[in-house]
Amino acid sequence: MAVVAYLRVSTEKQFLENQREEIVRFAERNGMSIDKWYTETVSGSVSSKERKLSGVLDKMRPGDSLIVTEISRLSRTLLEIMTILNSCIKKGVILYSTKEGYVFQNDINSKVLGFAFGLMAEIERNLISMRTKEALARRKQEGKHLGRKKGDMPKMKILAENKKQLLKEQKKGTSCSELARRMGVSRTTMFRFLHHKR
Fold first, then answer.
1. For residue 92, what are the domain limits?
2. What phi and psi values does residue 62 have, to the nearest 5 degrees?
3. 154 φ, ψ (degrees, to nearest 5)
4. How many Å is the maximal CA-CA distance in the chain?
5. Contact yes or no for 170/179 (Cβ under 8 A)
6. Looking at 10, 43, 45, 72, which residue is catalytic?
7. pLDDT band for position 44 (50/70/90)?
8. Residues 8 and 99 in one domain
9. Are 81 and 121 in contact (CB under 8 A)?
């Protein structure tokens, strides 16, 4: 019976080593020896069928154990988590989640816990998405998008009306900073305005 560890991070900036160390400690505490390690850098919102995880699950046999640091390492969606848990239960694979301290196997408690964790992961993902959209909408409304200052927004129309003259001045060697000073906008706004393809 094989013991498999699965580690996943969303970006290369995150560290797999923390997950590895936690799984090693878990295995030692429970008298287990890791036979295979699988690691990948991919978003949890990507379907498990398009990830290394799919191949890992296909190779597992009844009595094997799969260890992850937390359920969200399997997926960020409720449907995916439930599908993976159901697949493990049907195959007789025991799934360990080290941070939560739960064991998912073929019993009713595991099925209920799997649903609860999956639901929490789905809700949290939706909340993060909603907060991000609201923050972006608020920044846009305040005129903070595209690196512009709030005070620059009313002046964009004036810049547009004087674009030909500004470009002529720029060709003559007038600096972006000087043009920005004359028009009363930030240098960044002037630079983006003059170099933006329209």
1. 3-129
2. -55, 135
3. -65, -20
4. 79
5. yes
6. 10
7. low
8. yes
9. yes
Task: Judge whether 58 lies within some domain.
Answer: yes
> Does 123 share its domain with 33?
yes
For tokens 């379907």, name the residue: 47
Residues 21 and 104 grouped into a single domain: yes
3-state secondary structure at position 103: strand
In this structure, which amino acid lies at residue 10? Answer: S
Tell me how far apart the alpha carbons of residues 70 and 66 are, in angstroms, rounded to a whole number. 12
* Prediction pTM value: 0.56
Range of weakest confidence among 3-12, 61-70, 143-152:
143-152
The CATH number assigned to the domain holding 69 equals: 3.40.50.1390
Assess whether 10 carries a catalytic annotation. Answer: yes
Closest CA to 192 of 148, 162, 151, 154: 148
Q: How many CA atoms lie within 13 A of 12 on its CB side?
A: 0
Residues 101 and 172 occupy one common structural domain: no
Question: What residues contact residue 119 under an 8 Å CB cut-off, 6+ apart?
Answer: 78
Residue ranges in the chain assigned as alpha helix (H)? 17-29, 52-59, 78-91, 108-141, 156-161, 163-171, 176-183, 187-195
Tokens standing for 106?
């073929």
Which pLDDT score, from 0 to 100, does residue 146 have?
45
Residue 134 lies in a domain: no
- For residue 159, give the nearest of 137, 189, 121, 134 by alpha carbon: 189
Q: Are 183 and 162 in contact (CB under 8 A)?
A: yes
